Every structure is written in C-alpha cells, then in structure tokens.
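seq/struct pair 1
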Amino acid sequence: MEGDAAEIIENTAGKYFPSMRRAVARLFDIVFPRDCPVTGEPSDNPPWRYISAKGLAVLPRVAPPHCETCGFPFYGVLAGSQICPHCAQFSPVFSHGKTAVIAKGAARELVHTLKYRRGTWLAEDMARIIATTEFYPEFLDSAMLVPVPLHSARLRWRGHNQSLLIVRHLARILRDRHLQVADVLERTKNTLTQTLLDREERARNMQRAFALRAGVSIDVNARYVVFDDVFTTGSTLNACCSVLLDAGAKHVDVATFAHG
C-alpha cells in the first residue's frame, strides 16, 4: 500500500511540477524504505531504488553468444548458425532482438510484480537492468523505442502499460544513446491472454490486433525497436513489427526485458 501511495504522489508531483518528481521519489524512498522484491532484504543499493545487491546477483542475466533474432542465449560453445531453432522455424519479420534476463526465478518475480501486482515502482530498476546488460545499450543506439500497447479495456483494468513505463525510464537512463520513445501503435483488438496458448494459437490471436495510431507517420530512415516486457513465442512482437513495416518502416528490431 505504501508503494501505491508513493506512486500516486510521485505522479501528481510529476504532472504539476515535473522537475520535482525525482526529488519526491527519493524522499519517499527514505521515509518509506522498501524491501527488495527478490530477497526481502533492505534495498540500500544506489542507483537502484528497490533491488538489493543480492537480488541483482541472482538475476539470470543474458550474455553472448545469443540468438541474433530473439536474444536467447546459446549455452556452451557456439558453432554454425547464429539463429536459435525457435526463430529458424518462426521466421519473424523483424531483423534482430535483444533481451536482458531469462524469465525465471528472480527475473520472473520482477516481471510479475510490475505486471500483475501494480508494481510500477519497479519499472525504473528494470530499465536500469537493461541499461547495464552487456551490449544492450549499443544495440539501442539512436533507436525509436516502440512499446507494445495494451487495449484500452486492459489498460483500465491494469492501470498501466508496463512496456511504456520501462522504455520511458530507459530513454532517460540512456540519454547519451539518443533514444526516443515512439508510442505509435494502438491495440485494436482485445485479445485473449497469451499465457495458456501454444505458438500457433498465439499467432492467430494476434492477427489484426494492432494498428498505427491515427495521425502517426513513419520515418523511413529511422530504426524502430519494438519493446515488450517478455519474449515468449514472439507472436506479439511480430504482429507489431508487421504494422510498422506495412506503414513504410525499413529498419525494425525488437527488445525485451526477459525471455522465456
């Protein structure tokens, strides 16, 4: 409950006094210190606001070598193709992908807290995890970051779009990488949850689920990177990328916080 109150006050401060938002956030961290969601221990670990050093240490980070298309790591010695078996069968429309962690253990706990438990206070730390993952900042250089949108009904129910929250923090943290948040897509179909669907069902579920926002134009010279919190089968990301390509984009990649 403390987190919800802090978020409301931070958002209010940000709306009316934008320059005060971070100061208000830091004040709440001092007055209402929060335990690490991974370890349950105090999270005195600047510049991370809520994740402790022990929590960071147990995150299943992704490091090279990994699939060039989705970012999933290859374990052991890599020989031959740089594409994982899933992507070889999947044939995505996007070119390259990057992810920061494997969606298990501590990483899954972070995703679930942000996504399903209104843990919006975690978005900044999750963005910082991305920003400190090997080769991830270079991958995002000068990108137009496109968050996967939520349908308006689901957004009202959840209260936030986790992908949009993360990319906003990411653009600020990696300001020297010249990132821009491009919230250019909308969800036109309130699809079934993907959680219990197989690969083919997920792909069908995503058909005609997204569109370009009214009045938006695509810069054919820009590199668009579609961002989602988790890469599972890639169907959602693929559907979003298809909309951008159909609208004239020439360079489309994907990025996620977690994979699996």
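seq/struct pair 2
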Amino acid sequence: MKLLQKIRSVLDKESKYPEENTGLLSLLRYVLVIWMAYYAVVAIYILALGYWKYALILGVTGFLFAYYTRLSYAIRLKWVLLFTIITTVAVSGYLTSIFGWRSSFQYSIYVAFLVLWYDPMTSVRIKFIFSTLMAFAVGAVSFLTPFGHTVMDTTTPGYVVLIYSNMAIFFVCISLVAFFFCTKYVETESKLMEYNRKLKLMSETDPLTKLMNRRFAEEEIARIEEECRAQGYIFCIAIGDIDFFKKVNDTYGHETGDVVLKRMAAMFKEHIKGHGFVARWGGEEFLFVLTRMNGDEALIYLDELRRKVKKTEFKHEEVDFKVTMTFGVEEYSPRHGTEKVIESADKKLYIGKQSGRDRVVF
C-alpha cells in the first residue's frame, strides 16, 4: 500500500511551471507508465516467440515512454504531449502494419487522441489540427494494412494472446482517461456549486450579523405577500432599533458594538425561528416579519423579545452593560401593500423612541 501511495505521489507531482494543467500532467504520466511497462512486457513476449527485430522496436518504445515520463518533470507539458502523440502514432502505425489490424496496436492512437482533448489549455484549433492528422494516420494504416496480414501465424495461441493483451491495455487506458475526466468534472462541478452557494450567500446575507440583508429581505417580503394573498393568512412587519447604540460605540468602541449586534442577531434568529424571519435593515435597525400573526399576537411576541434583550448582559473588559430595544409593529393590509406597512411600522418605532424607548408600539 505504501509503495502504491509513493508511486502515486510521484506521478501526481506538480510541474515546476505553476500555470501547467496538473490534471493532464498526471493523466499523461499514468498512461506513459502503463505503456512503458506494457511495451516492455510485450517486447519480452515477442522476443520469446522469435521476433527479435520487432521486440527491439517495442523495447525502444517502452524506453521512450519512460524517458517522456522523466521529461514531464523538467520541460513544458505541451512538448511531452507532442512527443507522446508523435511516438504513439508512428509506433502504433508501424506495429499494426507488421502484426495486422486485428492485433489492436492502433488502439493506442485512440488513447492519445482522448488525452489530447482532455487538455483545457490547448486551443480548439490546435486540437482539431492534431485530431485530423491522427485520423489520417489511422486511415492510412487501415488502408495500407490488409486485415489478415501479419508476420505471425494467426492460428497460434501467441497471436491470440497478443490481440487480447492489446485490447485489455486499451480498455485500462480508456478507463483511466474516463476516471480522470469524471473526477475533474465532478470536482469542477462541486467547486462551481460551492462558489455559487457562497456568492448567493454573500448577495443575500449581512456580513456582520449573518442575517438577511435589506435587499434579500425585500424579496422575501414580496414572496410572503404573494403567498398571503393566495392562501388568505395574515402577517405583521416590525422594525426594531437598539436604543442609544451610538453611545455603546462611543463608550466601549466599535468592536464591542459589533459584538452586541452579532449577539443580538443570534438571539433574534433563535427567537423568531418557525414564526418568520429577521433581517438587518440598516445600522442598528432590524426588520422582523412575523407570519400567521395578527397585530395583537405580534405585540405580545415582540414584547417577550424586548424583555429578553433587556436582561442580556454584555461585557467590555471588566465592565458589564445592558441595552434595550424599541419596536414599531404594523399588521399587513392587502389594501396598502408592504411598502406602506413598513412605513407605518417605522413611524410607530419613532413614536416609541419619542415616548421613552424600551417598548413595543402597535
């Protein structure tokens, strides 16, 4: 297991050029190592059957693939890919013409073709040019190689082993390319989904309190208003403001003020859970939407929250302090619409401020 992990870490090692495609580089190395080992084994096999000249070609090919693997750590990926494609086409074409079309040596060209198209950095024009040349190469080999022509006796077990070995290694390499492609696709999709989720969260959330921001709250209110009209239930909108919050910032500092806002936001979120939502409306103001409540029920509900706020202690260094909140609440009316309801809640908040603060006005 440790040996396999070590081999994998070596093959997955990044290029010394940071802009190189790491995925393609790893895929190319894996394919080269598989081909290197396979051609070395086939060379020994062919030599044992007495075809020393072709065994030498296979051995040299295996050596070249080993050399390209080593080169991939030192030079640009595009050159290693180019060398691999040229060698694959040339050797596969020659071996196919010698051992016949049924020998399946030409399948290596198809693998090289897929590896080429895996690369997102190479332009489509270059890929198309190379793909066309490779297609011509396969066509030429097919045309120049009679289907049954081979230097080996096709009735011998040795030839059958060669055919099925080439087919097996082709499917191994195809599976490897598919694995890399699917892994990269899933990884890219996951990253894109996570990026979109974060982007959506940023567009909808106040960064300090993690509550809905004003823009998203307005969208949610419009949705609830539509739902309310369709289903015939009622809801209330309230605006709450922390009393003398400027004094908190001036006395204890803005960092402490931020702590107060964050703790209050968490308290609001917990209190309103299952009954609507809360959003940061601006500064120390918060907007509450209380679904399926009339004005009297909302008044009781918010007064409970007001008392909870009043009991909460905050600390700055060695000093403990408390804050209070004032709320203005208005019941939704289809006749007036949410804009008027928010405006009315804001006016009632102002009345509460003028009347001594720390109260809920309905």
